[in-house]
């Protein structure tokens, strides 16, 4: 083995010398050209759409293979890195490599270990096509297209999430081509068309000239100026409010609601005031010490292609500014001094922002609750089983009425619990899990006992303990109800109560919502070590169960712990005290009236009825432009369960072409919901699975970022599809189903189907839609 390593190492060195002799030594080139030039327009109109629709669908976010983010000109020029971002076993935190944040030039990225995929030697057509990884990968695919197989050989192809990544440099390409001749790009998908390949190769041969995103219009920049002025007032109150807004929106894509084709922006901290070029303060977390006396909050245009897995749109408008004014500036209160950035304070929002009204903070989050909860799901991760196996596969979310938070006793209670509300985010990203976990578990136990003592007093004899405690969206806000779907290592948040009654539900109050945000969004470091991620995940067990217990408190006292125990069969020992009530003891009777022996189902029905008028109904099948008979057929598909449901991937995207040719193809999503005995197991999730209780949810429209399978169906074929689905009980049956209706990753029509799917999705959701990700498409 040592001899082999020496030989291969020597070959790489020789290849490097050979390229140096042929084309000179490498150094970054200036590839970004002015947008107004013809060569830039050629890139924008001919080249960029191909890269977007054929490359970005696998190469975006932290889970991009080899950290190769092709979603921007700067990312293409940055190149690739052999180190994985998602490495759950690392003992120390790794360096951050966030695009547009941790380095500003290609030369700086080279210093951070990124190698080019474009030729950085002599700029000639021969050198650009022979000494560039991207060009060689395209040529390899054209020379070795996918084999003529419906299902690719599992021994020759690895599509697992944690597969080994080769990430060859140009010096290693010859060896790669020899060992993996079929692994050209796009990997495991059909080759791009000859015309697309010719366009890309011509562009690469010409030196890969690119241009960044088009700058915003003067009208848009005027709005940016207006908002930056608003966010950078000089008073202590203005500075503290802006800090609060920033720490809650830093992962969002901000846009101006009155624009037909909006430009998206990130809210960043800058060393420079409005009117000067932005100088981004690149800290690991948004509450880390910025190292300057005064922070300025600036809007920076998003420089990358919008992809669904990181897209969290947040509308700015005159009404939104007026609402912030009403929440934070109209009430009478005084800011004595600004909180510092010491981690023990800054990582605990209940301490750092205690001078701001609780009601204002809570309403700021719940009035845009989908965005707030979406931050937990998409914000710092875009992928992460360890972060997401802490939630069930589908559950509903409700909120405590904000009027409950607008009383003096609430503020004083939080102040009294400051020590118990310290959070794992106060530690750095290299953490020892066991000792820290014991400390935080004890703190959480003390807080829950104190909280339930307060609740037992507040709701003595069940007074006011009714569904009136649940926020009704003020009669017009469709953020009042949410549904969360987990898809193994990704998840989706939608408005409305989607699907049949779920196993569990959450009721979130201010402190719980705030703590989850600072645990999983503001305080979570995807580059952190194993201990940091483990403590975060373990702490979330208690926060999740606190939300579930808030829901259960509306049930009769005698069934609360029974219900909780049924959700946590064979759970870990550290949760037993919570389940049995030693930590989470709330014993006041509910004032909700029940008439059946299934109070949980009754309660969910009562809440559905109460909130129906404000809930979103966009995912209901009746919205589809198909015949009533076809919609009924689709509903039948949505009823499969048990081992039949287990056969399907996490997400199946379905395109139905209507009988009426004047109607656009209709899109649907079949979501598999995996059942568990409990979700308290950290590593061996499979041992807690209950496949006999799996089910599916079928919704109108696309839901989720990572399709596992595609179906293409003529409306007239729906009765055949229903019959086929009913007959699908084995893996062989599922293959027959795909033979008839599937668009596999090997299909010759894959790319045309993909283009149509993304186009219709964008038409249906012009603000919310982003490019889908194809890293989870199954090979079955």
Automatic annotation (TrEMBL):
Listed GO MF terms: isomerase activity
A Pfam family: CTI
Alphabetical UniProt keywords: Isomerase
InterPro entries recorded: Fatty_acid_cis-trans_isomerase
Protein name: Fatty acid cis/trans isomerase
Phylogenetic lineage: Bacteria, Pseudomonadati, Pseudomonadota, Gammaproteobacteria, Vibrionales
């Amino acid at each position: 083995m040592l001899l082999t390593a020496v030989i291969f190492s020597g070959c790489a060195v020789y290849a490097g010398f050979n390229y140096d002799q042929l084309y000179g030594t490498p150094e970054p080139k200036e590839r970004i050209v002015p947008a107004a030039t013809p060569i830039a327009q050629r890139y924008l109109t001919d080249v960029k759409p191909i890269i977007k629709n054929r490359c970005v669908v696998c190469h975006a976010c932290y889970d991009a293979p080899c950290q190769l983010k092709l979603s921007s000109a700067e990312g293409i020029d940055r190149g690739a890195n052999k180190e994985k971002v998602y490495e759950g076993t690392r003992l120390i935190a790794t360096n951050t490599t966030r695009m547009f944040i941790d380095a500003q030039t290609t030369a700086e990225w080279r210093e951070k270990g990124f190698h080019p995929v474009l030729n950085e030697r002599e700029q000639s057509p021969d050198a650009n096509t022979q000494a560039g990884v991207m060009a060689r990968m395209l040529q390899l695919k054209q020379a070795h297209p996918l084999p003529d197989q419906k299902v690719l050989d599992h021994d020759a192809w690895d599509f697992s999430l944690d597969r080994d990544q080769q990430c060859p440099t140009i010096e290693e390409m010859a060896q790669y081509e020899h060992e993996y001749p079929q692994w050209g790009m796009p990997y495991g998908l059909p080759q791009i068309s000859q015309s697309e390949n010719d366009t890309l190769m011509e562009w690469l041969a010409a030196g890969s000239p690119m241009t960044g995103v088009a700058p915003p219009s003067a009208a848009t920049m005027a709005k940016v100026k207006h908002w930056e002025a608003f966010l950078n007032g000089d008073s202590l109150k203005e500075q503290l409010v802006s800090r609060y807004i920033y720490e809650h929106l830093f992962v969002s894509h901000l846009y101006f609601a009155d624009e037909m084709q909006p430009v998206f922006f990130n809210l960043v901290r800058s060393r420079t005031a409005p009117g000067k070029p932005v100088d981004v303060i690149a800290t690991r977390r948004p509450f880390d010490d910025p190292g300057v006396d005064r922070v300025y909050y600036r809007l920076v245009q998003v420089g990358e292609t919008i992809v669904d897995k990181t897209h969290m749109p947040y509308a700015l408008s005159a009404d939104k500014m007026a609402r912030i004014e009403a929440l934070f500036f109209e009430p009478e209160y005084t800011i004595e001094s600004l909180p510092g950035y010491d981690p023990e304070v800054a990582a605990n929002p209940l301490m750092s922002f205690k001078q701001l009204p609780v009601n204002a903070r809570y309403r700021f989050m719940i009035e845009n609750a989908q965005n707030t909860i979406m931050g937990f799901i998409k914000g710092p991760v875009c992928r992460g089983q360890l972060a997401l196996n802490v939630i069930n596969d589908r559950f509903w979310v409700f909120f405590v009425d904000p009027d409950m938070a607008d009383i003096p006793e609430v503020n004083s209670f939080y102040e009294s619990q400051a020590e118990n509300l310290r959070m794992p985010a106060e530690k750095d990203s290299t953490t020892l899990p066991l000792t820290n976990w014991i400390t935080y578990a004890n703190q959480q136990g003390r807080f829950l006992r104190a909280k339930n003592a307060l609740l037992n007093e507040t709701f003595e004899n069940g007074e006011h303990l009714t569904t009136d405690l649940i926020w009704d969206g003020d009669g017009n806000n469709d953020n009042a109800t949410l549904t969360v779907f987990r898809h193994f290592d990704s998840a989706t948040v939608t408005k409305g109560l989607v699907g049949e009654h779920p196993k569990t539900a959450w009721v979130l109050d201010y402190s719980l919502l705030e703590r989850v945000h600072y645990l999983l969004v503001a305080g979570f470091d995807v580059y952190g070590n194993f201990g940091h991620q483990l403590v975060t995940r373990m702490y979330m067990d208690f926060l999740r169960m606190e939300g579930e217990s808030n829901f259960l408190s509306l049930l009769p006292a005698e069934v609360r712990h029974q219900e909780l125990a049924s959700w946590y069969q064979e759970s870990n020992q550290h949760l037993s005290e919570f389940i049995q009530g030693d930590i989470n003891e709330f014993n006041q009777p509910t004032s909700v009236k029940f008439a059946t022996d299934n109070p949980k189902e009754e309660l969910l029905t009562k809440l559905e009825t109460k909130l129906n008028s404000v809930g979103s109904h966009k995912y209901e099948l009746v919205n589809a432009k198909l015949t009533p008979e076809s919609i009924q057929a689709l509903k039948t598909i949505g009823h499969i369960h048990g081992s039949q449901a287990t056969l399907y991937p996490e997400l199946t995207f379905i395109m139905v072409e209507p009988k009426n040719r004047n109607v656009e193809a209709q899109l649907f999503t079949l979501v598999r919901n995996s059942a568990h005995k409990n979700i308290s197991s950290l590593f061996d999730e499979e041992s807690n699975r209950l496949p006999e209780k799996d089910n599916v949810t079928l919704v109108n429209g696309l839901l989720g970022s990572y399709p596992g399978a595609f179906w293409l169906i003529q409306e007239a074929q729906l009765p055949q599809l229903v019959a086929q689905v009913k007959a699908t009980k084995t893996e062989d049956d599922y293959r027959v189903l795909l033979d008839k209706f599937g668009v596999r990753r090997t299909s010759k029509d894959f790319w045309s189907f993909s283009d149509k799917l993304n186009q219709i999705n964008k038409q249906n959701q012009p603000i919310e839609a982003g490019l889908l990700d194809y890293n989870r498409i199954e090979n079955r």
